[in-house]
Specification:
TIM Barrel, 8-stranded parallel β-barrel, 3-stranded antiparallel beta sheet, about 35% helix
Length: about 325
């Protein structure tokens, strides 16, 4: 039967999570084998929380392996929604583009709607020159996320991305404590997105809804680190969109008490140190459509199950 996702509703939790999680099960700390990752993705798509699932994230070098392992699981009915993939770069743009083109041709089986399709490409850009070079090499039709360093000077990089019409990407963590940026660095990135009207995604270290101390890997004896919650990041962006200050956004990024967040039928309220901040559905929808459109996570169950445990779903 054709697979159709439910329509977007006005519930704030639904607006925030609709299609949010780009599943990166192949990447650390999960680092699953391809067979396990594609099986998980198929199960998540078919499950009751499939509406929160975004793209399957796959390295360019593993597209052929994806085709082999995922072939029996891909949708084949006319009118079905294909699996959408976001491909991470290998460092060789020309080779990546060839692999993407070959993949899309292989999986274009009926009315361009079945099977799977790569419609996003993610790669690092270290400088303004990098951004220009990458832009010139990639077809305008391929949605491209340029991963930018959050160090000083990120505003100039975001401005350069805006000039190309591409999208930006920020990394908010990793498997070592040093990989996590300061709240002020994230705020500068978010503010630059708004100033230059750039759409972005976030990835790494965002498995959990709320700021807190979590294990860096899934090893039982793994060290812990304070990580950002994906909800903190989305709501901080919404606060800035709604006219909040950078200082308020940094405080919201640090919020670790879920009882200070109130999910009402039409808005989310943050009961922070300066009083209640109300973020309505209009602002939340703008953030999800124009500012932060997805969050990469090597786990899909953690973001969804923990949000449900907190009573937000």
């Amino acid at each position: 039967m054709p697979v159709r996702l439910p329509p977007l509703t006005e519930r704030p939790s639904r607006i925030l999570l609709e299609g949010m999680v780009d599943y990166a099960g192949l990447f650390p700390p999960a680092a699953l084998a391809m067979q396990a990752a594609v099986r998980n993705y198929a199960n998540y798509r078919a499950g009751g929380s499939g509406w929160a699932l975004g793209r399957f994230v796959c390295p360019a070098a593993q597209l052929s392996l994806f085709s082999e392992r995922a072939e029996p699981l891909l949708p084949r009915d006319a009118g079905a929604i294909p699996w959408r993939l976001s491909v991470t770069g290998s460092g060789d743009v020309a080779a990546d583009l060839d692999a993407i083109a070959a993949f899309n041709e292989r999986h274009r089986v009926c009315f361009d709607e079945c099977g799977a399709t790569v419609d996003c490409y993610e790669l690092k850009a270290e400088s303004v020159d990098d951004i220009r070079r990458i832009h010139d090499a990639i077809p305008a039709s391929l949605t491209t996320y340029l991963e930018l360093s959050l160090r000083d000077g990120v505003e100039e990089l975001v401005a350069a991305v805006a000039h190309t019409g591409r999208r930006a990407k920020m990394r908010t963590g990793g498997t070592v404590a040093d990989a996590f940026p300061a709240p002020t660095q994230i705020v500068r990135f978010l503010r630059a997105l708004l100033v230059h009207t750039v759409t972005a995604k976030a990835t790494a270290g965002l498995h959990h809804p709320m700021r807190g101390a979590y294990r860096l890997t899934y090893e039982a004896n793994a060290p812990t680190c304070r990580m950002f919650g994906f909800l903190n990041v989305l709501l901080a962006a919404a606060l800035l969109v709604d006219g909040g200050t950078d200082e308020q956004a940094a405080l919201l990024l640090e919020e670790s008490d879920p009882t200070r967040l109130e999910f009402a039928s039409t808005h989310v309220a943050w009961h922070g140190p300066g009083g209640a901040v109300i973020l309505d559905g209009r602002v939340l929808l703008y953030v999800r459509e124009r500012v932060l459109v997805s969050v990469g996570s090597c786990s899909f169950t953690e973001p969804v199950d923990e949000s449900r445990a907190l009573g937000w779903l």
